[in-house]
Amino acid sequence: VQLQASGGGLVQAGGSLSVSCVGSGSIFSSAVMGWYRQAPGKQRELVADITSGGRTNYADSVKGRFTISRDNAKNTVDLLMNNLKPEDAAVYYCNAYYILLGRRVDYWGQGTLVTVSS
Asked: Which of 48, 50, 106, 116 could form a disulfide with 89 if both were Cys (CB 3.0 to 4.6 A apart)?
């Protein structure tokens, strides 16, 4: 089971960027998939996630600017980031999780760096 992230990079404030993640393994069709980020000196935080049924959840700080989507057939999850702000700069991590016997089982991809210049 693996998650492979791509995308990210450098963008000016107000610009747009997208990150994508593809999962290998059958569990992803039913897992919640999402994106977390971690800025230097800060804890990793949820950015957005999406269930297999398409229900989305966003951090308040990105609502109205970021859009998460997934393709269950391809086991992919994408995050489109619009109107980026300097405070959005972070390493973004793809995540997938499911609940097994009451416990959350997480899978993480490698991080991809998003840099926002002011």
From this structure: 116
Q: Look over the chain and give the mean of its residue pLDDT values, rounded to a whole number.
A: 95
Residue 78 pLDDT grade (very low, low, confident, very high; cuts 50, 70, 90): very high
Q: Phi and psi of 33, rounded to 5°?
A: -115, 150
Asked whether the predicted pLDDT for residue 81 surpasses 90, the reply is: yes
For residue 108, with 0-12 CB atoms within 10 Å meaning exposed, 13-18 middle and 19 or more buried, which class applies? middle
